[in-house]
């Protein structure tokens, strides 16, 4: 017997290697909170492996390249940043 029959089928990559996008953004220090990360994704400032992210809760590979483009700072606090 060669062991190719009767054993469990090989499964694809474990789901533990996929994480919520908003959680990864906070874990990597790109945003201080999930709420800020979610707002940036919805505003179109976040890219995953070169493609615009569509939903804050989308599952992405834990090793995905995450990029923040543009100015994700909300308009409400811009006056405080100007001098």
Give a brief description.
By secondary structure, this protein is α+β, with helices and mostly antiparallel strands.
Residue runs with pLDDT of under 50 for 5 or more positions: none
Alpha carbon gap, first and last residue? 77 Å
CATH superfamily: RNA-binding S4 domain
The CATH topology turns out to be Structural Genomics Hypothetical 15.5 Kd Protein In mrcA-pckA Intergenic Region, Chain A
Helical segment count:
3
Structural class assignment = alpha+beta
How confident is the prediction overall: mean pLDDT? 82
What gross morphology would you assign?
Answer: globular
How does CATH name the architecture? Roll
CATH C-level: Alpha Beta
Estimate the helix proportion, in percent.
10-25%
Secondary-structure element series? EHHEEEEH
The total strand number stands at 5
Overall tally of domains: 1
Salient structural properties:
Structural Genomics Hypothetical 15.5 Kd Protein In mrcA-pckA Intergenic Region, Chain A, three-stranded antiparallel β-sheet, 24% helix
Description:
The N and C termini lie far apart (77 Å). The model has no long low-confidence stretch (mean pLDDT 82). The longest helix is centred in the middle third of the chain and has 9 residues, at 34-42. The chain has a single domain (15-81), classed as RNA-binding S4 domain (Structural Genomics Hypothetical 15.5 Kd Protein In mrcA-pckA Intergenic Region, Chain A). α1 (21-27) crosses α2 (34-42). β2 (46-48) and β3 form a beta hairpin. The strands form 2 sheets. Strands 3-2-5 form a 3-stranded antiparallel sheet. It has a two-stranded antiparallel ribbon with strand order 1-4. By secondary structure, the chain is α+β, with helices and mostly antiparallel strands. The protein contains 3 helices and 5 strands, in the order βααββββα.
